[in-house]
Amino acid sequence: xxxxxxxxxxxxxxxxxxxxxxxxxxxxxxxxxxxxxxxxxxxxxxxxxxxxxxxxxxxxxxxxxxxxxxxxxxxxxxxxxxxxxxxxxxxxxxxxxxxxxxxxxxxxxxxxxxxxxxxxxxxxx
Length: 125
Prior knowledge:
Elements: H1 9-17, H2 22-33, H3 36-43, H4 47-54, H5 62-72, E1 77-80, E2 84-87, H6 88-96, H7 104-114
Antiparallel strand pairs: 1-2
């Protein structure tokens, strides 16, 4: 068995982005401290999504990934009309939840998220 070669996340990001944006740098820093898989789990995304973003070839919603990184790794928050100030990543998670009558908070969140200015639109807006 051979030792696994360490990934140079910064070199990969710089090769792809030139001067990487601040959120990619935050992603690089997190991947250097933890594993890429651990960071992906923290962001509730796949490792391949992170790899694609670092290499600037992720074909999906890059704005949504950026919002997750800003919330989970950079401390970006939004004012939720139901929960108060929450991380941007949690806001995205709450929007994605299906309707549930399990609690009054879940019902209020579902209603509030529909017209919320923080809502992540399908087109990344």
